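Lecture notes, structural biology module. Today: joint structure prediction for complexes of two components.
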Amino acid sequence: MSDVPLVLPLLIPLTTAAVSLLAWRRTVLHRVLAVAGAAALLGAGLALLDFVWRGGICATQAGAWPAPFGITLVADLFSAIMVVLAGVVGLTVVLFSLASMDRGREAFGYYPLVHVLLLGVCGAFLTGDLFNLYVWFEVMLMASFVLVVLGGERPQLHGGIKYVTLNLVSSALFLAAVGILYGLTGTLNLADLARKLDGMNQTSTVTAVGMLFLVAFGIKAAVFPLFFWLPASYHTPPGAVSALFAGLLTKVGVYALIRVFTLLFVREAAFTHPLMLALSGLTMVTGVLGAIAQDEFRRVLSFLHIGQIGYMTMGLALAGLTDSPSLAVLALAGSIFYIAHHIAAMTNLFLVSSVARRLCGTFELKRQGGLYRTQPLLAVLFLIPALSLGGMPPLSGFFAKLSLVQAALGAGQYVIVAAALVVGLLTLFSVTKIWAEAFWKPSPEAAGGGPAGLTSRQKRVLLVPIWGLAAMTVTIGLGAEAVFRLTTRAAEQLLHREEYIRVVLGGPP
Amino acid sequence: MATLLAVVIGCLYAAGIYMMLRRSLFKLILGLVLLSHGANLLIFTVGGLTRGRPPVVPPGAAAPAAPTADPLPQSLILTAIVIGFAVLAFSLALFHRGYQTFGSDDPDDLKASDR
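The predicted structure, tokenised, for the full assembly:
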């Protein structure tokens, strides 16, 4: 039964969401189911990772239709790592929601929606079929549309309209690209596409389609110059929803970019990958400069988030630019390491910002303050992901940046090295600004006593997921060697496409 | 036929993008609809146009007679239409709610959150 680990990450969120929907308005049951489902998803993700680590890439054909005709589910190490990370984000956000989500949103199906979102995300990670990827994207988007506007506050509606519009444009482009690719090759199976595209002469047409994919996934991943929807919408929904989006949604775009540009569009690397490298550098710089200009906790984080996306695509671009296979593996392994580090750190920062808002009554940094004095524990828990984001050793961000910079030095791309290091420094500067405003300076409302804080029981529940993610950041940092061995193997699998193609389409080993 | 459809698709895309650039939420939705129709028609056209040859296996034969229409693009479009319909219904509701809340159809008037 080799299919079970592959199907479970889809079945668990689907079942959780479906059962929750049947028990509409029974909020307590929703909460129990949501926590159990998210924990089970994390367990299933770890089981899948273990299965793929020991047995290599595995694939299963839905409905037993043979490979290029039916829909293939396939998991290599990269997919498995992403499913585990989705489980981590799902569990922490659901736990955080228990104490932070208001009754109204819970009654209107908040928890089932989170699980539908997780379903779409896991589906996108596990599918081996391009059109199926489109469908999973839509599942994920639909859930995220509702989550963005659930509650219907003014800023939410405003952010939601922008978010929906930009994502629909991106979906239309994605769909058109899928259609053209089908017209060119007559197949939609990723492995079959890789094989057929290798034998084609019309490289310029194929590259044009690749550019369509770059734009479509670039909008979803929020790379320069397509990121404008992100800072316009991520600071509007409740804190837990922001954290969920920051953890997962853009990463699905990055995942799709890495997948299609390591599997399908590899022949014109001399054209596509320098372009991607330039986009990565510009994404980093604009993101971090935007963050410096902001004065609102979550808007600073949104722009920092964009800056970090640049590092992930930087590894992908470097992998296609270097001639040496070992450098390509190093670059891509750095990218995957960066994704893992980023998901833990960024989700955590959004969660901390939400707690800070509960304590100070506002997200405006100017009106926050004094948190170090009243909440020293929270301050430490903020510093861990914040310093990690800036790349301080021994936290996870340092090793992620180190491998990317090493790869860039090896490939002789000194401009991007400079950009990566300067942006790291500026990232540190922006998180220091948050630290100075929200935590260090005396509270501006100290005389008035400030708004009512949290009960100690609420605080305990809110801090559990933050502790968990901080521990993950420290563990990835201290156990960097083991994690790096994992991501290196994942990168090797991505770069040796023959194995992926062989497992999906069958054939002699 | 393919040339004609190519022109139609081009017009749909052009009209869709023009509508999206207008200063009105309602026209923005119309633009999105035109854009997704353009994409659907594009899949249909690049999938190859074959007239009057349904891919149906005649009784007694193992495969349909040689030049048949490819059913896959049509099923892809069908899926895309269904998804597009759901998304459109949602965005109509959202934009209507936005219109009620902000009292304006002009995207520039939605200044509640973004500077």
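Point to remember: The mean pLDDT of chain A is 89.
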